[in-house]
Design goal:
single chain, alpha/beta, Rossmann fold, 2 domains, six-stranded parallel β-sheet, 25% strand, elongated
């Protein structure tokens, strides 16, 4: 997949179908639209092109609001590639770009991407003051010879699958519900940094993960999770918090990998959150903390055994088969996924 930062940099060998949006999380709703567009590109022999933004427009337009992402830009591009997109254009979003009219923006899509079809959701809008709604885009399509295809949203449990909803679920600690809408485990990734080695002294060595700033962080507490390192998936227990028993103040993400022996320093590690176990709390003694950790490890092991996922893992996988079936009524069997080994 080509990844470029300007429309004019895309290498276009044939006409294209284009979709425009933030696509944060590349969740089941996004996959629903992208899958329909990709199938049409195959039928017509066109390019499939995603135009997205860094940072998300909300971050620039509403800086006073808390804005957190579900994926890094690199993860998003990897997920889009797995969905069969040919080109991803990552535009740097600025207030100047926000002032471009819908007509001028669409003209650039037609000129540089040879756009013959624009695929959007029913509430999509682009251009200055969101002037380019569905009606306006169809008018422009008649003038510039491209079609506008509106894909109805995907519903799960009576609600639209959206990045906003997933962020809310994660911030409430409702991990399983968020994972169902993502179609995979919500993950936090980064290199393993050196910590205070308290966990090792307590009998539960942990890997401290340097998570990139700006990602959605679930509530402080203990989680059953999987830890992926060098292609191998390990059952694990993660703590997100400040370790109040030791009066720490810095928020950390640390994971204890069940059954793992070895050195993890400086390796890339991905923590796939499965279920919230308990809130973080301060203990009266180290012995009380160790006793609770033993209970956490036992409960996590029992929960994770029922997940039936393969021992191998890849850096980014768009779907984990058993997570998304209940929220994918239209089915996307051609979407890449990790097999369900149950």
């Amino acid at each position: 997949m080509q990844i470029v930062e300007a429309l004019s940099d895309a290498v276009i060998e044939r006409p294209s179908l284009v979709t425009v949006g933030s696509f944060d999380g590349v969740h089941l709703g996004h996959q629903h639209l992208l899958g329909a567009m990709q199938r049409t590109t195959q039928q017509r022999g066109f390019h499939g092109v995603v135009v997205t933004f860094r940072p998300r427009p909300q971050v620039v337009l509403f800086p006073e609001r808390p804005n957190y992402d579900l994926t890094t830009q690199e993860e998003k591009c990897a997920l889009l590639a797995q969905l069969g997109m040919d080109i991803t254009v990552v535009l740097h979003f600025t207030r100047e770009l926000a002032q471009v009219s819908a007509a001028d923006f669409v003209t650039d899509l037609v000129t540089h991407l040879r756009m013959r079809g624009l695929w959007i959701g029913p509430n999509s809008a682009m251009g200055r003051n969101r002037e380019g709604d569905v009606t306006r885009l169809r008018q422009l399509g008649q003038e510039m010879d491209f079609s506008v295809h509106v894909v109805e949203p995907l519903f799960c449990d009576g609600e639209i699958v959206s990045s906003t909803r997933i962020r809310q679920l994660l911030q409430l600690g409702q991990i399983r519900q968020a994972n169902a809408l993502l179609g995979r485990y919500y993950a936090l990734s980064g290199p393993v940094a050196r910590g205070a080695t308290r966990g090792k002294r307590l009998g539960f060595p942990t890997a401290n993960i340097a998570v990139p700033h700006g990602l959605v962080m679930p509530p402080r507490g203990v989680y059953a999770c999987f830890a992926c390192v060098e292609g191998q998936r390990w059952p694990a227990v993660a703590n997100i918090g400040v370790r109040p028993t030791f009066s720490d103040q810095q928020l950390t993400v640390e994971a204890h990998l069940l059954g793992f022996t070895g050195n993890l320093y400086d390796r890339q590690l991905r923590v796939e959150l499965v279920e919230f176990l308990r809130v973080e709390r301060q203990f009266d003694s180290v012995d009380a903390l160790v006793a609770q950790i033993r209970e956490d490890v036992l409960l996590a092991a029992q929960l994770l055994e029922r997940e039936s996922v393969p021992a191998q893992c890849v850096p980014v996988m768009v779907r984990t088969a058993h997570l998304s079936s209940d929220c994918d009524p239209n089915g996307t069997s051609d979407t890449p996924s990790e097999p369900h080994m149950g």
